[in-house]
Fold each of these.
Amino acid sequence: MIKFKQKGCKLNSRFLLIILTLTISFCAYAEDFFLYSKYIPYLSKKDPQIVKSFYFKANTNTNKKIIALTFDDGPSENGYTLVPVLKKYKVPATFFWIANRIPKYEINRYNSELFIIGVHTYSHLNYDKLTEKEILNDVEKALDIFHENNLNPKYFRPAYGIVNQGIVKALRKNHLKGILWSIDSMDWKYFENQQIIIQNVVNHLSPGSIILMHETRTKPETLEIIIKEITKQGYKIVPLTEILKYPSKYPNDVN
Ligand SMILES: [Zn+2]
């Protein structure tokens, strides 16, 4: 009888240990990457070699509390209102611009040593629907516009976070580095509820994170709250170049 009880107890504790380990690993995983629910399955279906040609997050040690802010889809009227907030708090940021928008906006409003400008395609096409040749043409057409405007970008973010062989080749040919993200603010979905955008960012911070926002979707007061909260949690917002000094970390499902 006693033996049986002990055995049951052993089994129970082993079971509890497994549950505990699974819970801890899930929590660690959830904290480490906050990519929207459809993105992980998308990435996990891709060839890991292709995924690993892109950069997601700095693989820093846990006490190196640095993060980078990135804003897609500009330039834009709303972007003009974010620039003064970033300057006020001396916060570095990277803007990934859609090339065909550049001639329509006053890009000199973004002039600051705090900012890096990257490429976000020519007109926001889905590169999974283009041939390798079409992707290369689109990337180079985008670069022409950047160069005409005295911009010499080194970083590229595909629209929708698409990754494929054609993009890898086009980026390599044009000496561009593909940058994705590890935290999605989901401002593209929750423009009407800026509180959710704040929670999505500040509840998922971890050292080395790259935060995805859209300069067309985040309001300046939201950005201000996010900056204050990031700082309050002991993180330093650094330029993307600082993050890139570390090797990239990848979502667990991709390994
Ligand atoms: Zn975009």
Note: The chain is about 40% helix and 15% strand.
Amino acid sequence: MNERQPSQTALGAAGYRAAHQVLEGGKVFSDPLARTILGDGADAIIAGLSAGPAQQRTRFFIATRSRFAEDCLGAAVSRGVRQAVVLGAGFDTFALRNPYSELGLRVFEVDHAATQAWKRRRLSEVGLAIPASLTFAAVDFESDDLGRGLRDAEFNPDHPAFFIWLGVVPYLERAAIAATLRYIASIPGSEVVFDYSEPLENYPPERRDEVAALAARTAEVGEPWLSHFDPAEIDRELRGFGFADIEDLRVSEMALHYLGIPAGGPSGPGPHVIRAGTQ
Ligand SMILES: C[S@@+](CC[C@H](N)C(=O)[O-])C[C@H]1O[C@@H](n2cnc3c(N)ncnc32)[C@H](O)[C@@H]1O
């Protein structure tokens, strides 16, 4: 992506979460700040993400991946974890809602400097205060040392941490993904939730046009998809980095889990959400 301009896909993901609040009442993922953080343009953004079954599927996927990540984070906090890191945070609002701040959960938001500066300006414009439990770290996964960026922000790599890394892996080169996962696995008692997509050739021919159109749209805004994984391949890589406890969920499994019904869309290859822990 172009590091001099804020991420357009971050605005898109935030728009889908806001649309989910308005159109589905936040049924899967309740985020009372999702609309607020969009500012004055909220209604237009939501209206643009409301048409047709493909947008409904994307709304559903984006809502469930956040719900799953925050459910897993809640479980980690119950086990005593007190550091959460939101990697490529974009306009994610968890750090602003942090329901565990009284328990001492510190949240670190990592993102490109341009996107982070944009978010901070937006928070001030819409009157959302930055909580004392939140610290920002500007890091480029492709060229910076994540560990150093987090240490500079007073993250403690000797204490367990929970990482949320949503909607970012497809936009990175393989080397940056491997370096980030290796770093997470080096932290004792760490856990991560992230999503990835399968390569286009895994899809049946009749579904490739829809996926290719989505990829073309992100490329048009300067954020092309750079990395895809086969499920067996990502499992092998994660184990190689030291993750032992791995759960890989397809969108259809998320639908069953959170709605008790099929997603209403195809159940074959597609986006996946992974939870991976080192213990
Ligand atoms: C699709 S957005 C997802 C944002 C957020 N996680 C969400 O789910 O709403 C992708 C995010 O990854 C960040 N990102 C992409 N490439 C990056 C890089 N090389 N270094 C740091 N952040 C990056 C963008 O700035 C943006 O915030």
Note: Residues 8-277 form a domain with the Rossmann fold fold (CATH 3.40.50.150).
